[in-house]
Design goal:
heterodimer, A: about 450 residues, Alpha-Beta Plaits, 2 domains, 10-stranded mixed beta sheet, 5-stranded antiparallel beta sheet, 11 helices, 18 strands, B: alpha+beta, 4-stranded antiparallel beta sheet, 3 helices, 4 strands, about 30% strand, elongated
């Protein structure tokens, strides 16, 4: 029975550069999927693109492909990546340039566009699309003039078009993470767009591996000590059958583990209502999934159910929302905690005297209660050291800089100020905030272009 | 007994909300989780941290419960001043909860 082996080699931009190479060289796979986009990555890429019209995509992806392109083409491993950012065509051109300069033949790049809806926002507002914040219900008017990027989450369908046209590398802009996996499955098995249970199975398979090694021993709360060689953790692979059943596994000889527990933790990751997992192609239901160990580092997942999707597409926007800064000072025994608290009180008294306009200020005692807060009490402990962390958020960078100037003088406060953890004086960093919303599917028209190398 | 003796957990963020997947180490302990770890008790456990409501979903097929804690990340995502801005450790905070066996 035919199975399709789909690997994940990158869970976020900045994930292990070695992981995708290990996925290609560690054994047989049919597809390598790579996820580069976090919530606000597009706004960063758009800034790069405005400075340089040849930029605006994940340059790391091009560096990676320069290393593995030849092998992938020779072994017929297709690569699907949302590395295109705000300039998928530029990303494709960079790949074609790599192929040309290295004399690699046979590259055929599919480019998916149409996710970038910046230019359509005014029109949508005019037509009465509310674009309100999906989480908070806030009105779009509050942020409209500060929007830095706006991208619809396209799904698997345009990827299948690129594959049908013979692409061996598919580059998208914003695309759902599971779509990177569902696309190849629909292409390989000829699933119909109303085979709801199959589309749900492919979506669950995508969800299982989209966060990389989180399915195979990384960030595993249930037994991290038993995960073996995490320095060489194996990234996950799904072996999917035509009936939607799939086995999660990893290459032999790698670290980590694939067990029912590691897979279950990942199935629950960032899950909302388990009966209603939304995607552009299908609404998937996790409540009848069965997870079963069928061999060493082999876990079978069955029972996905699906129903028709909604008429909406999710949109991720980013908008500029002031400046933040954070200072950290270490105090040590005796009375580390009391010293940190006194320094914080001195700092706040001085800030009050300056009459700065702050949107928020927060004090944390790192090493004492900064993570679990009141949920896991630290009262009564006498830590040998405590890091005082004070963070602020303001509308303008000048306010953050003025706050920063008050940190070093705390050396004249309680004894034992052991220097600033973050190095020199803190610099204001611009905050890009996230604005999720929904739009009607009909507004977006994904385009696919396939380009040949030499 | 604390939850950590019978369950494991993973948490993640969605905007200003956190989801916590709580999984029975032994499938036979799932009914215990259903009985003891109610949405009300989770809200009480995270008092002062979760400022909104707590929703609970049951997944008997996975021996797991999924909790959504709203208004729990100080604004969430890229604007939160919290050390744990994405609630990555909140699953482990839940495991500190005392339960009756």
């Amino acid at each position: 029975m035919k199975t399709v082996r789909i690997a994940n080699g990158q869970a976020f931009w900045g994930d292990s550069p070695a992981a995708p190479i290990a996925q290609v060289r560690g054994g047989d796979i049919d597809y390598l999927t790579l996820d580069y986009l976090a919530e606000i990555t597009m706004s960063v890429l758009r800034k790069q693109y405005e400075r340089d019209p040849d930029a605006g995509y994940a340059r790391d992806f091009v560096d990676l492909m320069s290393e593995i392109m030849q092998e992938c083409i020779e072994r017929d491993i297709k690569v699907i990546a949302n590395a295109g950012g705000v300039n998928p065509q530029g990303c494709a051109q960079a790949l074609l340039d790599v192929a040309a300069s290295k004399g690699i033949s046979g590259l055929r790049v599919g480019v998916v566009t149409g996710d970038d809806i910046m230019a359509q926002l005014d029109g949508m507002v005019g037509e009465g699309v509310p674009l309100q914040n999906l989480d908070t219900g806030q009105s779009f008017e509050e942020v409209r003039d500060r929007i830095a990027s706006a991208n619809a989450h396209l799904g698997a369908e345009p990827i299948t078009r690129a594959l049908a046209d013979g692409a061996n590398v598919v580059i998208t802009g914003r695309c759902t993470d599971p779509g990177l996996v569902l696309g190849p499955l629909v292409h390989e098995f000829g699933w119909r767009w109303d085979d709801w249970d199959l589309l749900a199975a492919g979506t669950v398979a995508g969800h299982t591996i989209e966060c990389g090694a989180q399915a195979s021993g990384g960030n595993f709360q249930g037994g991290w000590r038993e995960m073996g060689d995490l320095a060489h953790v194996g990234y996950p692979i799904v072996e999917v059958s035509a009936d939607g059943t799939f086995v999660v596994t990893k290459h032999p000889g790698t670290g980590g583990a694939v067990t029912t527990a590691t897979v279950t933790e990942q199935l629950l990751y960032e899950l909302g209502d388990p009966a209603t997992y939304l995607s552009p192609e299908v609404t998937a239901d996790f409540t009848a999934l069965e997870v079963q160990e069928v061999g060493r580092d082999r876990v079978e997942v069955t029972g996905a159910r699906g129903r028709p999707p909604t008429d909406s597409l999710k949109v991720s926007m980013a908008y500029s929302d002031g400046f933040q800064g954070s200072a950290m000072i270490t105090y040590a025994w005796p009375d580390a905690l009391a010293k940190a608290e006194l320094a914080d009180s001195i700092l706040r008294t001085r800030l009050e005297g300056l009459d700065l306009r702050l949107r928020a200020i927060r004090t944390d005692l790192v090493g004492y209660d900064s993570v679990h807060g009141p949920v896991i009490p630290s009262e009564g402990s006498d830590p040998a050291e405590v890091v005082l962390r004070v963070s602020i958020w303001a509308d303008d960078p000048g306010t953050v800089s003025r706050f920063a100037a008050e940190i070093a003088p705390l050396v004249m406060g309680p004894p034992g100020f052991t220097g600033l953890l973050a190095g020199g004086r803190m610099r204001p960093s611009r905050v890009m905030a996230y604005w999720p919303t929904l739009i009607p599917k009909s507004v977006v028209d994904p385009q696919v272009i396939v380009r040949d190398g030499v | 007994m604390r939850l950590i003796d019978v369950a494991h957990a993973r948490s993640g963020d969605k905007g200003d909300s956190v989801n916590i997947g709580l999984i029975a180490r032994d499938r036979s302990d799932y009914p215990l989780l259903v009985r003891e770890v109610t949405a009300e008790r989770v809200a009480h456990h995270f008092a002062g941290v979760c400022l909104g409501e707590v929703k609970r979903y049951e997944l008997p097929n996975l021996g797991a419960l999924n909790f959504i804690l709203s208004s729990a990340l100080g604004g969430g995502g890229t604007t939160s001043l919290r050390v744990d801005a994405q609630g990555k450790a909140m699953g482990e905070a839940l495991l500190f909860m005392e339960i009756d066996v």
